[in-house]
Each structure stands twice: as C-alpha cells, then as structure tokens.
Design goal:
heterodimer, A: 309 residues, mainly alpha, MetI-like fold, 2 domains, 14 helices, flat, B: 366 residues, alpha+beta, Rossmann fold, OB fold (Dihydrolipoamide Acetyltransferase, E2P), six-stranded mixed beta sheet, six-stranded antiparallel beta sheet, 9 helices, elongated
Chain lengths: 309, 366
Amino acid sequence: MADTALRVSAASSADKRSGLQKLMQRKSTIAFLMTLPLIVLIFTLVAYPAGYALYLAMLNKAMTKFVWFKNFDFLFSRDTFWMVVWQSCLFAISAVVFKAFIGFVVAHLVNNIPGKKQRKWRGMLLVPWVIPAAMSTLSWLWLFDSSYSAFNWLLEPLGIGPIPWLGETGWARFCVILVNVWIGAPFFMIMYLAALKSVPEQLHEAAEIDGASWWQRIWYINLPMMRNIIAITALFSTILTFANFDIVRVLTRGDPLNTTHLFATWAFRLGIESGDIPLGAAVSLFMVPILAVGATIILRDINKRGSEV
Amino acid sequence: MAQVTLRKVVKKYDEVLAVRGIDLDIMDKEFVVLVGPSGCGKSTTLRMIAGLEEITDGDIAIGGDVVNDVPPKDRDIAMVFQNYALYPHMNVYENMSFGLKLKRTPKDIIDQRVRQAAQILDITELLDRKPKQLSGGQRQRVAMGRAIVRDPKVFLFDEPLSNLDAKLRVQMRTEIKKVHQKVRTTTVYVTHDQIEAMTLADRVVVMNGGNIEQVGPPNELYHSPKTKFVAGFIGSPAMNMVPCQLEASGDALKVRLSDTLSLAVPASRTARYRPHVGKPGLLFGLRPEHLTETRPHLEADMQTFDVKLDVTEPMGMETLVYFAINGIDICGRVNPNAGARESQTMKLCADMANMHLIDDKTEQVL
C-alpha cells in the first residue's frame, strides 16, 4: 500500500514539474519575464509616485484626514494659482518659440560652414546645454545682481539703467526666459542640424533649377522636410520647459511677489518651504492634464504625416 | 533659339582637373548625349551647364548669353536627376507645378500646362499621388513632367535611366525619344551606357579623362571612330583589336596578325595606309559583325581563314564565337545555323572593307 502511495505522489510531483516546465517554455511567459524589469522599473518610478502624489493631494495639511478634492477647490479660489498657470504658459510658450527660432537659424548657419570648422562650431555652441543648468544659472544670477550687475555696468556709459533685472516683474520674467532660451537653444540647434543633414542635397539642386531663391528653398523644402523633427523637438522641449524648476529656483525663487513662479517652483514653495505637502502635490498634478493634451495633439499629427511622406 | 556653347571650359577640384578645357556647340532643338566611363567629366560638364558647379575657366553660353555667373534659377533650364529628386512632401501635381508657382504663373495656366504635360507622359491619373506611392518608372515620368511643364530653353538629363531595371530602361528610352519629338527642346543627356547614347542622340559626345574624344552622329562614331578609345567604347561586343604589322608586297598591302595569318588590305585603303608600312605598335581593328561565317559568294574585300573556336555564346538571333590570336581573345558574330561548335575548327570570313588601323602610341585611328 505504502509503496503505491509513494509512487502516486512521485508521479504527481513529476506532473507538476513538467507543467511548470511547459509554462516556462511558453512564448508569452518568456516575453513577460523579459519585459518584467521594465514593468518593475515603470511601476516603481512612474506609477507608484503618481498614485502616491494623487493620494497625497487628497489629504489635509497635517496629512491626517482624507479630504477628497478640497485642496483643488482651495487652489481654484486663489489668484496666485491662476497667476502661476498663466506664468507657466507664458514661460513655456515664449521660451520654446524663441529656442526653436534661434535653433533653426543657427542650425542653418552652422550647416553652411564647410568641413572641419563646422565641428568646432557645433561643439562650442553646445556648451550652454552641456553645463549643469543650476551652475550656469548661478553665473547668470551674478550678471543680473542688483548691486554688481555686469550688464548694468556695460549699460551705464550709454546712459541706460540701472535696470532692476530680477527686482521687477517684467524684467524678472524676461531674465528667466532669457536664461532658459540660452540653455535650451543648442538642443534645438543640434536636432535641426541633424534634420537638415537628412534633406537630400539633390532636392535643393532641383529646387534651385526650378527657380527657388534661398529663402524659398528653406520655406518649401527644408521646413516641410523637417516638420516632424520640429514638432517632436518642440513637444519635448515644451514638457521640459513647462516643468522647469532649477532656473527659477536659482534666479528668482519665484519672486518678486510670486510673479515668476512656475508649477514646479510654486509646488516646492507650498509643499516643502511652507510645509503643506498635500497642497504642493495638488499643484504639481496640474501639469499632467495640460501636457497630456499637448502631447496627444502633436503625436497624432506626426503619425498622420508619417504615413504620408 | 537656345544653342548651348562651351568654350575652353575647365573644372578643377582643388588640384584635380575634372574637365580639361572642352569646346562644344549644341544646336537649337538638338539632342546631344554626353557619354563616357565614370569619372570622365560628363556629369560635371552637365552640372556646369546647369549652374550647379562653378566653372574654373572658360565660358558657357545659353542662347547666345554667357551664363558663367548666372545662378541656376535664372538660366531657364530644367534638369532630370538620376534619383528623380522629387519633393517627397508634395503630390505629383504640386511637384510638376512647383517651378511655375515660384514664377507666379496664373493658376489656370499652371493647370493647363500640368495637365498637358501629364497627358504627354500618360500620368494624368497619378496627379494626386505622393512620390512614395509611385514606381520607379512613374517617378521618372513625373521628373520629366516637372521639366516639360516649365517649357525651358534647355533640358538636362543626368543618367535618368540608370536606376531602372533593364526592361523598363528600354521602354523609357523610347519614351524619352518620343517626348523629344513632341517637345522639341535643346537637350543635353548624360549616360555611361553607349547603347542609350547611340539610340537617343542626334549627336554623341564621347568623353574620356576630362577631354572630348569625338563628337558626331551615332553612325559616324560607330563606323569612323577617330581614336582608339572611341573605337573600343562604342559598340557591344567591343571592337576586336589585335597587334599587327603592315607589310607591303608590291602594290598591295597586308596586315600580319600572326606567323600564319595575314589579311590583304582593300585596294581603296592602300594609299592611306602606305606611309605606315613597317611601323611598330599598330593595332588591327575589326568589329565582331564583320567577322562572320563564310558564304558561297564572297565580296571583293572578304577574306576567309580557319580558326579553332574556344567558346560559343548563342544569343538566339546570332551566335557569338570566341577564338584567340596570339593569346588575344577575338569575337565574331555568326549565323546560329552556321554550325559553330566549341573546340572545333570553323572557317570565318573577315570583311576587310570595314577594317581599322590604329596607332597604339598616339591612340589615333589612321
């Protein structure tokens, strides 16, 4: 009897083992296991923080009570919130437009430099983008300093100034955008330069023979051929610019009177500096829907055109 | 009126001479083909006419006006590129109308011209398509349409058929010829394919090493080449060239090809060749079609001799036979029914009325 029982149990364990083996050999299992590291990574770095932020945003200031959407209600009723919305849009849109424009022009200039010199220029022009932003912004901070501004020192003999670079709303916003453009334009330049190089030279020759001037060749050949890269770069940069933190933090800390705050810096001010973490989380969550809409529109457009050309 | 004139045109890239001072007159409405091996300067010459390359020295005139410093857009030319160079983001209609649109031509005239050109090229139903959706042959037609629509003074073609497969190439070749018959515009056409050159051209310009070797109608080039290069380049299979000695025996002349084989020079050529008797470094040239199977009734200048065939290549309408004289491969073209067999002896007949004598040193045909 015992002998038979033993044999039966041995057989069933062998069955289980072969079942497990089969499961491990299935293609879908292998595929799942191979993507598992990515799934874990995305969950721990994206899904969990996002869910946690959502949870945080629905707590009271002391983080003891669940208050549902009261934090959002409170934000909607505050003028500063709407000012930050407006400032973030102004900052992101104007900075991206200038970066794109400067990047486009400089890419064309660099593209016309022959041979080895081009590499040198390309390297030099990338420097602002390569230096850590917090560090280069610190140098800009000194250039804008209220007492020792190098710009004011230069402008003084011309009878201009002294300009309160970071002390007045208009100038402060200008400075924040200027520094962002200075840091970000090289990225546009390098992307556009790559796109320009992928436009076949013969198209230019054909257009030249068709009677196109230099300007018309840019308008009718380069721009349409670069459209996808322009859109992708703009989208990418808009997201990064919209979520910018370091420049404003180092240069103005959101002052004067909160008029240079962006979502990220204001969330930091409310959440960390003022100790209202749920409110800070609520502010930072507002970036998500705005960026999602932009990303959807641009990506859909790219898909559509990608199938055309 | 749109003649194209090149005077002592030179192109130098750094220290490399690509074109070495060429002179060429292309008549109004003429179809001229520049042909030569790669690197001979034919494409550079075309690009200089187009204005895409600056000329280092000399003059280029279109319609009597020197255009050395005129940019391409003001030269009133149209060009068809090897890889078509269609604008990928525009549809066929936009591609064809682009040049006219830039000239601010009224819309109804643009429409009329595009549809007319589309009809000539049989691409009316493709007007709404993007270049990506077209086959190679269709793209080539659109590229030609883009040129025709502009009604330019000169058409320039830069190896337009070399990206097409062999069958389509032959078809498009005929197409180009038909289009030129309908739209009689001065045309300069560059190719490395001598058959394309022979079939299309009013006159062929053979180029080699940055120089013009010879200019003339296709038949003249074929039957009376002036240089060794032209003799070897035009014609397929190429002309046979065998080192020979010119011997005099009384009034008559003989070319000696080997110890056992010598052929008599036709009486009509003796006066022309007599000064070269005994000269070293002579080549005897004879095209494969002048080396055939023997016939019952031989004409005056035909001479027969026996050879041992190495290889035969039946082509259907003819059979190519190969044999060697002093280690040099010779090709003949015989009737498929003449019974040519590999490794067997065959009696061949050389038509000496079509022989050439070439000085290997000066590379001139005597």
